[in-house]
Fold:
Amino acid sequence: MKKISFFIYLALFTVLAACSIGSKETKEANYQIVPLPAEITVAEGTPFTLNSATKIVFPEGNEKMQRNAEFLAEFLSISTGKKPAITSASSDKNAIILSLGLVNEISEAYQLTVNENAIQITGASEAGVFYGIQTLRKATPIGDKISVSYAPVTINDAPRFGYRGMHLDIARHFQSVEFIKKYIDILALHNINRFHWHLTEDQGWRIEIKKYPKLTEIGSMRKETVIGKNTGEYDGKPHGGFYTQEEIKEVVKYAEERYITTIPEIDMPGHMLAALAAYPELGCTGGPYEVERMWGVFDDILCAGQEETYRFVEDVLTEVMELFPSEYIHIGGDEAPKVRWEACPRCQAKIKELGLKDDAKHKKEFYLQSYFTERVEKFLNEHGRKLIGWDEILEGKLAPNATVMSWRGMSGGIEAAQLGHDVIMTPTDYCYFDYYQTQNTDDVPLAIGGFVPLEKVYSFEPIPQVLAPEQRKHILGAQANLWTEYIVDSKHVEYMVLPRIAALAEVQWMQPEKKNYEQFLTRLPRLLNLYDKLDYNYATHIFDVQAKMTPNFETNSLDITLHSIDDAPIYYTLDGSEPTASSTKYDDKFSVKESAEIKAIAIREEGNKSKIFSEKINASKSTYKPITLLTKSDPNYTYSGESMLVDGLFGSSTNYKTGKWLGFKGEDIVAVIDMLEPTEITSAEIRCCVVTGDWIFDASEIILESSDNESVFTPVNSQKLIDANTNHWSDIATHTLSFEPVTARYYKITIKPTVMPVWHSGKGNKAFMFIDEIVLN
Structure:
């Protein structure tokens, strides 16, 4: 008897010890997630505790809801180390109950309620329940075999847009099926419901088409890849890969299970060199062609003057439609030069047959592309599908039922909506994730250029105010794009997408009046904890010191404010030395009048340091002096305006989108600087950013004048500049006028643009000019 009692005691002790070990601690859930739900009402009462006995209940016989339950169990297992059992048996105690029946006109809406006994997620559809699950997942803290306490709450939530997209180009650099699934998981975590899969390019054809086997036998492999930005040097390594039709079906199903529709893009009639290499008879010249090794836009495109091309397109799209149940099929339509069509007898015969003519807006070859697009759209419509194209499909005549994806700014989308067409907004300035995330690009992976930081993404408003209420309904949603010329591996893909996709998620999901960037930053670190748990490779720039530098024309100095996302202590130096915890601690805004090199670092308690922020301040006699710009900068490149020209801050690279360069489109730059008192100078210097491939040239002439009364100016010096280059070049050009001492209060500087030379595609047009500073000494 005593021996039996001892073993009962021992067994009980073992069970209790195991329970104790299994629940090391209890952590509290936090409903302040990304994207932030529309309505969160916290109530009084006893929290619900997720523990080892918690079950997930789903409606019997509903396969999608069972899968939702399995997803939730897996998500909670990853976050807490405990995987709840799932069941269709009814339970209202210690249960997470998934159900349908929410009445809401938005099918993706859900309600999440928490009380002492249960968590209830009710959706207007299975997709709605899935988004409720994502909310619960992101509210759940990270830990190892932890219990979680969920405060009583009612969350009512629904997305703003029905189309919430994310794009991936795997044609320029191929990615595995395994990674595509991981990418889809990333999209699902951020409530994104459209995966735009860019499958074909000049540099590779990535989808098996059974009727045209050479597309993958030949078109999927390029013999080598250019090193850097079309340097003329190559890596000598073949690059290729494609997805079989079975693999495509596998990915489409994987996305569908996560309530994501996969939209394929087969880009046409341009970006088709990989197809032409396989089937040269589809081009205007007949070749020979090769799978392209460089990046850019190329003259050889599909021949629109022969029926064989249209048979090819229809055959390819027939197989594509069999693989992708998506309502939309993307046919590209972008960057299709008309050079070959202008010289092609078959294309010119087709133009004559159709009666196409040049007009004030476009040459007849643009209307031939409109015919091509309309014909493809008719074929898709006959098969119950809709066509999406990039905004170039507006050039000429827009196909009757086409949806426009507006990428070259918002104007294309505005025009399409005003014409009564549906639109997806994806402008480069907010939504191109292949652009740099930071101004300091020396120690980050190579990118195509540009500058789209997290805050810029967050500030995006997809519905332009210029649209009338009825026209605004045509804006279906927003999408970000990731082109991969310079993005070779999957870790780099993740780095470019994360965490910018979190900002995108709030643009797509939340009502605009509820958005708040500073508040978003307080919620983001908890999402980053989940990224860490899931082994996502994300950019950490948000943890670096952020600086705001503003010229103060009252004190004639540069006002500097520093901050960090988590209010970590910041230390700085002004002499270029590396800051440490022994350096000056930042407390409040300070000012600088002279040249300096500021370096700053955030140092956190756990020993983690930010990257060192560094900026050189180049003070001159004109720095921080009032300036008046007499000509207008281009609105796309105005940034903080004329004060940029006397702020002492130089552009550090030819990336003209960082906010350091003020841009002018074919305009003279005329500026007057008030030195506040008669000031002697002997030199004037300007710096021009030159990227001729983007129609940005050096200045052609610089004129300096002086005045004592701001009305009558006297010439001081001038210099005419000649660009002898006959090929594209990119650099920062510095020009200095030197002269005998001149004393005046006002100085006027005029900088004239270059007329683009005959070797350039923009020949005869006045070029863009970008300058960062006017230096008078």
Observations:
- DSSP finds 18 helices and 36 strands in the chain.
- The mean pLDDT is 94.
